[in-house]
Fold this sequence. Notes:
Layout lengths: L9 E5 L6 E6 L5 E6 L5 E7 L3 E5 L8
Amino acid sequence: xxxxxxxxxxxxxxxxxxxxxxxxxxxxxxxxxxxxxxxxxxxxxxxxxxxxxxxxxxxxxxxxx
Length: 65
């Protein structure tokens, strides 16, 4: 079995919690995958980015996510 080493490139996320826009800062400009999971671990959002800073509009997400 081959193990894949994963590195967390997240520098910051704010504001947390939020009901409008979530700003995410990463420590690199390589291809990154961003996932948002609900409390059960179900993926509710994903995106790919090469930007160090990205924003996600979460206003349409369910309250309490």
